[in-house]
Amino acid sequence: MSINKVAIVTGASRGIGAETAKLLAEKGYSVCINYLSNDAAVEKLKNEILESGGTCISVKADVSVSSEVIRLFETVDHELGCVSVLVNNVGILKNQCRLDEMSEQRFSEVLRVNVMSCFLCSKEAVKRMSIKYGGSGGVIVNVSSGASKTGSPNEYTDYAASKGAIDTLTRGLALEVAAEGIRVNAVRPGFIYTEMHASGGEPDRVERLKSKIPMQRGGKPKEVAEAILWLATEKSSFVTGSFIDPAGGL
Ligand code: NAP
To answer: Per residue in 43-66, pLDDT tens?
Structure first.
């Protein structure tokens, strides 16, 4: 299905997105690294991929904004060719608190960045991939979270709700485009060692919670990226509307 071998990974400057971009490049995909602001991290990642013989470009774009998403996809059309794999990886969270302490502005921002980005990017991808529109098919992998099942009480119910929406979008879109050559799946990671937890006000959150994980350890970004890679490639050719939980048993 991935005839063009062109992949877009949103939020790929660091963490799970960066590891996914590296693995896709290793598998021969021309990769577009999308990010919001961290130029230095992206330069380092790009150099690493290029020095290993891979092909990549970077596009700085806020994927929660429609015009930015259109610019991202048009840049990829011109510089790499038609996208065949989209990884909707962008996700943000804010300081841990109860729902009754949350501002309306914060709730709205978390939902906008986490859900609108997935909607906008998926829409552009379907228009290019669907055989209904003359495309050659493709794959969309959404990065949800175990939070969609736990609800993240006392920490981030807004974030958890946004991931619940990602799960529902994954299932709905998968069925909508299943007969049009597009597969849509998601991963729901557990506690993974990335910089994201610092945005929630607790950089060492995984260390605090690891004893609650059946496997008694936090996950590495690469362990999530491997699941994304499997869903992105032909190895999972009969899988759509499904979820993989790289979460150590949670
Ligand atoms: P991270 O280390 O915090 O990285 C977030 C990435 O998103 C960065 O590349 C950031 O770019 C980018 N970004 C943020 N807002 C953006 C926007 N509006 N437009 C474009 N890019 C934007 O995150 P992570 O921990 O790797 O998480 C990746 C995904 O996994 C998220 O969806 C997250 O919800 C999910 N997840 C993570 C965990 C975990 O424990 N870490 C668990 C479950 C699910 P800049 O660097 O330029 O700011």
So the answer is: 999 999 999 999 999 999 999 999
* 114 alpha carbon – ligand 1 mean position (Å): 9
Q: Are 242 and 223 in contact (CB under 8 A)?
A: no
- Does domain 6-244 match CATH 2.60.120.1140? no
Known catalytic residue: 159? yes
The dihedral over CA atoms of 65, 66, 72, 75, expressed in degrees to the nearest 10, equals -140
Looking at residue 192, the DSSP 8-state letter turns out to be B
Task: State the Cα–Cα distance between residues 51 and 63, nearest whole angstrom.
Answer: 28
Cα–Cα distance for residue pair 164/228, rounded to 1 Å: 18
**Phi, psi (rounded to 5 degrees) for 62:** -80, 105
Cα distances from 249 to residues 86, 107, 160, 166, in angstroms, run 27, 29, 19, 21
Buried b (16+ CB within 10 A) or exposed e, 25-50: bebebbbbbbbbeeeebbeebbeebe
**Does the CB atom of residue 248 touch ligand 1 within 6 A?**
no
- pTM here is 0.98
Q: How is the chain split into domains, by residue range?
A: 6-244
**Ligand 1 neighbourhood includes 102 CB (under 6 angstroms):** no
Q: How far apart are the first and last CA of the chain?
A: 32
Strand partners of residue 9 = 33, 87
